[in-house]
Amino acid sequence: MHVIHKLFTPPGLLPSLTHTHTSVFLWLKSHFHLYHPHLCLFSWMVSPAIALAFIPLLLTIIIRCRYYFVLFYRAVLVRIWKDCVTGLSREERAYQYVLTHATPGDPDSILDAFDVWCSKVEFISNIGPKKGKILDRLLMEQSPLTVLELGAHCGYSTVRIARSLPLGARLYSLEMDARNAAIAEKIIRLAGFDDDTLIVNPSDEVIPLLRSDYGLERLDFVFMDHWKKCYLPDLQMLEGSGLLRKGSMIVADNVLFPGAPKFLRYIRKSGLYEWKVHRATLEYSKGIRDGMAELVYQGIK
């Protein structure tokens, strides 16, 4: 209480307060509810100065995070608004656009229509054209005969993979959301791929059954683009299934944004893979850094 007494006497001392005294006055007012007239006047004088001091910080945050604000607007706010206005899901709206703007039986036309819609109309987290070209190249180099896709979503990456596979290859695509899977099925058939297998179930339920229920003996290529928290447990499940052989390739999208840190930490320490991250920007966005991990299984040493 000695401090309180000193601060209040004499009143004429108020104009010459130091920065330390300012902090004490503000602390006293907020914690002890002291509403001395001089304190009220002082608060009125200080508040605008504090507000002005925060303006440069606020502007810096806005400038640095502007791409994330744009992404939030396109991916969340626009989606909510259009869901309410149209009564359709975002994936259904994308399908309608592709259906009216693409050529049936032409995978390139379907992917181009998707890219236009996702970049100009609404945001969907497909792999997109830039990282998609990396995926195309890896598929061409590997020429895999058995491919597993985790996260078909609305069929964009499924079509992208299917068009790059050699004759006789088999593609098994998993999608846990039944509504999205229905859209993916339509997109895949629209592109002219009738032999691919679309499985509607969570990955942790399907992976243990790939050998017994689907007759798989080996996986040459795995593409991960589902929930990022599932990357690591699903990879470990694939290791335990015995379907990965030396030379099997796993490609995982969005390992930097939204990110899969546990997955990256595991592959770095496990010693089971030769790996690298292809750095890029987030699909259909500017200024947001992302990356796609490429893993080649070396087997248990």
TrEMBL record:
Gene3D superfamilies with a match to the protein in the record: Vaccinia Virus protein VP39
Name by which UniProt lists this protein: catechol O-methyltransferase
Family to which this protein belongs: Belongs to the class I-like SAM-binding methyltransferase superfamily. Cation-dependent O-methyltransferase family.
GO CC, alphabetical: basolateral plasma membrane; endoplasmic reticulum; Golgi apparatus
Organism: Sander lucioperca
Subcellular location: Endoplasmic reticulum
Substrates-to-products reaction catalysed: a catechol + S-adenosyl-L-methionine = a guaiacol + S-adenosyl-L-homocysteine + H(+)
Bilayer-crossing regions: 41-63
